[in-house]
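Appendix B, Record 12. Input sequence as logged:
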Amino acid sequence: MLDSVNGSINASSLLDEADKMYNSPASQLSETAQNAWRNGFVSGGEWMALALSELRKTKPVSAPSKLQVLGITKYILASTAALLVIGIAIWTKIYPAILLCIPAFYAVEVQMVFLFPIVLDGSHHPFRDSLRWTKKAGGTIPAMKIVMVLALVMIFGGFLGKGFIRCWCLGCLAVVLWYEKLLQETSVPTTLEINAEAI
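Logged structural output:
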């Protein structure tokens, strides 16, 4: 399913792969996407677990309930960074600087971009491990270049008639594909692979 991990990973190639996988007749992702948002971050995690299982040809793992708290924490941290920038811009009356709230948000959010796949793979220290995976992805700036493009598709793709849920899920699937590519480069066995061998 995955293209070669050799060469640079970019948002365009990830989205192309995500689109092909999402629309594949052999995949259950498109038909289950409508339920991906129903229970917040937990159901979103279950959908990402399905994506991982299809990539690895293993049984999907259950999404832990702690994904709800982790997801909320992730976006509180990112939003706090954005609000801090807005507050400083207003306080100093440098109003154009308010626009910096967007990169500030994603500079924090990108540190946790792999949070859900990491948790699904059994991490006991998800925030610490997520920082490590962001570094593995090239660091903050290179990862932001990918994440911000994915975010544009996830947020605005629906307004272009491509389906709001579909576009959101494509962004999530792109992150799963990205994570899996990095995992292949390291050749580290995952919790899912270990469990599959035990069956």
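The two ends are 23 Å apart (CA to CA).
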